[in-house]
Amino acid sequence: MALWRAYQRALAAHPWKVQVLTAGSLMGLGDIISQQLVERRGLQEHQRGRTLTMVSLGCGFVGPVVGGWYKVLDRFIPGTTKVDALKKMLLDQGGFAPCFLGCFLPLVGALNGLSAQDNWAKLQRDYPDALITNYYLWPAVQLANFYLVPLHYRLAVVQCVAVIWNSYLSWKAHRL
Predict the structure, then answer these.
(1) So what's the pLDDT on residue 4?
(2) Residue-wise over 74-110: b if at least 16 C-beta within 10 A, else e?
(3) What does pTM read for this prediction?
(4) Which of 11, 73, 136, 166 is deepest in the core (most CB within 10 A)?
Protein backbone atom coordinates (compact mmCIF):
# COMPACT_ATOMS: atom_id res chain seq x y z
CA MET A 1 0.00 0.00 0.00
CA ALA A 2 2.93 2.34 0.55
CA LEU A 3 3.79 2.05 -3.13
CA TRP A 4 0.21 2.95 -4.09
CA ARG A 5 0.27 5.99 -1.79
CA ALA A 6 3.58 7.09 -3.28
CA TYR A 7 2.09 6.70 -6.76
CA GLN A 8 -0.93 8.79 -5.76
CA ARG A 9 1.30 11.53 -4.33
CA ALA A 10 3.44 11.57 -7.46
CA LEU A 11 0.33 11.61 -9.65
CA ALA A 12 -1.09 14.54 -7.68
CA ALA A 13 2.19 16.47 -7.89
CA HIS A 14 3.09 15.65 -11.52
CA PRO A 15 0.04 14.17 -13.25
CA TRP A 16 1.23 14.37 -16.85
CA LYS A 17 4.74 13.05 -16.17
CA VAL A 18 3.48 10.18 -14.03
CA GLN A 19 0.83 9.19 -16.58
CA VAL A 20 3.36 9.20 -19.42
CA LEU A 21 5.95 7.24 -17.42
CA THR A 22 3.27 4.77 -16.33
CA ALA A 23 2.24 4.22 -19.94
CA GLY A 24 5.85 3.72 -21.03
CA SER A 25 6.63 1.31 -18.21
CA LEU A 26 3.55 -0.79 -18.83
CA MET A 27 4.13 -0.82 -22.59
CA GLY A 28 7.61 -2.15 -21.88
CA LEU A 29 6.21 -4.76 -19.52
CA GLY A 30 3.74 -5.81 -22.20
CA ASP A 31 6.59 -6.32 -24.66
CA ILE A 32 8.58 -8.34 -22.14
CA ILE A 33 5.55 -10.56 -21.57
CA SER A 34 5.10 -10.88 -25.32
CA GLN A 35 8.70 -11.87 -25.92
CA GLN A 36 9.05 -14.17 -22.93
CA LEU A 37 5.64 -15.80 -22.51
CA VAL A 38 4.04 -15.59 -25.95
CA GLU A 39 7.04 -15.87 -28.26
CA ARG A 40 9.14 -17.82 -25.72
CA ARG A 41 12.38 -16.13 -26.76
CA GLY A 42 14.22 -16.66 -23.50
CA LEU A 43 16.53 -14.11 -21.95
CA GLN A 44 19.36 -14.74 -24.41
CA GLU A 45 17.15 -13.99 -27.41
CA HIS A 46 15.23 -11.12 -25.82
CA GLN A 47 15.28 -8.10 -28.12
CA ARG A 48 16.09 -5.27 -25.74
CA GLY A 49 15.84 -2.67 -28.48
CA ARG A 50 12.30 -3.77 -29.19
CA THR A 51 11.39 -3.37 -25.51
CA LEU A 52 12.97 0.08 -25.47
CA THR A 53 10.99 0.95 -28.59
CA MET A 54 7.78 -0.04 -26.84
CA VAL A 55 8.75 1.98 -23.74
CA SER A 56 9.49 4.95 -25.99
CA LEU A 57 6.16 4.53 -27.77
CA GLY A 58 4.42 4.43 -24.41
CA CYS A 59 6.10 7.59 -23.20
CA GLY A 60 6.12 9.48 -26.48
CA PHE A 61 2.91 8.38 -28.16
CA VAL A 62 0.52 6.20 -26.15
CA GLY A 63 0.68 8.11 -22.86
CA PRO A 64 0.31 11.61 -24.33
CA VAL A 65 -2.26 10.63 -26.96
CA VAL A 66 -4.50 8.50 -24.75
CA GLY A 67 -4.11 10.81 -21.75
CA GLY A 68 -4.98 13.79 -23.94
CA TRP A 69 -7.91 11.93 -25.46
CA TYR A 70 -9.40 11.27 -22.03
CA LYS A 71 -9.21 14.97 -21.19
CA VAL A 72 -10.89 15.93 -24.47
CA LEU A 73 -13.53 13.27 -24.00
CA ASP A 74 -14.29 14.49 -20.47
CA ARG A 75 -14.68 18.06 -21.72
CA PHE A 76 -16.85 16.94 -24.62
CA ILE A 77 -19.03 14.67 -22.46
CA PRO A 78 -18.81 15.84 -18.86
CA GLY A 79 -20.32 13.63 -16.21
CA THR A 80 -20.06 10.10 -14.94
CA THR A 81 -23.58 8.74 -15.24
CA LYS A 82 -24.15 5.42 -16.93
CA VAL A 83 -25.39 7.23 -20.04
CA ASP A 84 -22.31 9.50 -20.06
CA ALA A 85 -20.04 6.48 -19.70
CA LEU A 86 -21.83 4.74 -22.56
CA LYS A 87 -21.48 7.81 -24.79
CA LYS A 88 -17.78 8.07 -23.96
CA MET A 89 -17.22 4.39 -24.65
CA LEU A 90 -19.02 4.61 -28.00
CA LEU A 91 -16.94 7.62 -29.07
CA ASP A 92 -13.78 5.99 -27.78
CA GLN A 93 -14.35 2.69 -29.53
CA GLY A 94 -16.09 4.03 -32.62
CA GLY A 95 -13.76 6.93 -33.33
CA PHE A 96 -10.60 6.93 -31.28
CA ALA A 97 -9.68 3.23 -31.24
CA PRO A 98 -9.70 2.77 -35.03
CA CYS A 99 -7.60 5.91 -35.52
CA PHE A 100 -5.23 5.04 -32.70
CA LEU A 101 -4.55 1.55 -34.04
CA GLY A 102 -4.20 2.98 -37.54
CA CYS A 103 -1.41 5.21 -36.24
CA PHE A 104 0.18 2.84 -33.75
CA LEU A 105 0.81 -0.10 -36.07
CA PRO A 106 2.57 1.86 -38.83
CA LEU A 107 4.50 3.87 -36.25
CA VAL A 108 5.95 0.63 -34.88
CA GLY A 109 6.66 -0.50 -38.43
CA ALA A 110 8.49 2.73 -39.21
CA LEU A 111 10.51 2.51 -35.99
CA ASN A 112 11.42 -1.05 -36.96
CA GLY A 113 12.73 0.16 -40.31
CA LEU A 114 9.97 -1.09 -42.60
CA SER A 115 9.76 0.63 -45.95
CA ALA A 116 6.59 2.59 -46.66
CA GLN A 117 5.42 -0.17 -49.00
CA ASP A 118 6.10 -2.96 -46.48
CA ASN A 119 4.53 -0.92 -43.70
CA TRP A 120 1.39 -0.36 -45.77
CA ALA A 121 1.15 -4.07 -46.60
CA LYS A 122 1.61 -4.96 -42.92
CA LEU A 123 -1.04 -2.44 -41.89
CA GLN A 124 -3.50 -3.87 -44.41
CA ARG A 125 -2.80 -7.37 -43.14
CA ASP A 126 -2.80 -6.69 -39.39
CA TYR A 127 -5.19 -3.78 -38.85
CA PRO A 128 -8.53 -5.59 -39.30
CA ASP A 129 -7.57 -8.38 -36.91
CA ALA A 130 -6.16 -5.92 -34.35
CA LEU A 131 -9.32 -3.81 -34.48
CA ILE A 132 -11.62 -6.81 -34.11
CA THR A 133 -9.53 -8.10 -31.22
CA ASN A 134 -9.73 -4.61 -29.69
CA TYR A 135 -13.51 -4.90 -29.66
CA TYR A 136 -13.39 -8.13 -27.66
CA LEU A 137 -11.63 -6.41 -24.78
CA TRP A 138 -11.94 -2.67 -24.70
CA PRO A 139 -15.64 -1.74 -24.80
CA ALA A 140 -16.33 -3.39 -21.44
CA VAL A 141 -13.10 -2.08 -19.91
CA GLN A 142 -13.78 1.44 -21.12
CA LEU A 143 -17.39 1.42 -20.00
CA ALA A 144 -16.26 0.54 -16.47
CA ASN A 145 -13.35 2.99 -16.71
CA PHE A 146 -15.53 5.92 -17.75
CA TYR A 147 -18.22 5.10 -15.17
CA LEU A 148 -16.15 4.16 -12.12
CA VAL A 149 -12.69 5.73 -12.42
CA PRO A 150 -11.80 9.41 -11.86
CA LEU A 151 -10.17 11.09 -14.86
CA HIS A 152 -6.67 11.31 -13.36
CA TYR A 153 -6.59 7.52 -12.80
CA ARG A 154 -8.08 6.43 -16.13
CA LEU A 155 -4.84 6.17 -18.06
CA ALA A 156 -3.24 4.12 -15.27
CA VAL A 157 -6.24 1.79 -15.03
CA VAL A 158 -6.32 1.32 -18.77
CA GLN A 159 -2.57 0.75 -18.91
CA CYS A 160 -2.80 -1.93 -16.21
CA VAL A 161 -5.42 -3.78 -18.24
CA ALA A 162 -3.38 -2.97 -21.30
CA VAL A 163 -0.39 -4.98 -20.14
CA ILE A 164 -2.11 -7.97 -21.75
CA TRP A 165 -3.28 -5.86 -24.69
CA ASN A 166 0.23 -4.45 -25.11
CA SER A 167 1.60 -7.99 -25.19
CA TYR A 168 -0.79 -8.73 -28.03
CA LEU A 169 -0.03 -5.45 -29.83
CA SER A 170 3.71 -5.97 -29.47
CA TRP A 171 3.42 -9.46 -30.89
CA LYS A 172 1.15 -8.24 -33.70
CA ALA A 173 3.27 -5.21 -34.52
CA HIS A 174 6.55 -7.14 -34.56
CA ARG A 175 5.29 -10.19 -36.42
CA LEU A 176 6.60 -10.24 -39.97
Answers:
(1) 84
(2) beebeeeeeeebbbbbebbbeebbeebbeebbbbbbe
(3) 0.85
(4) 166
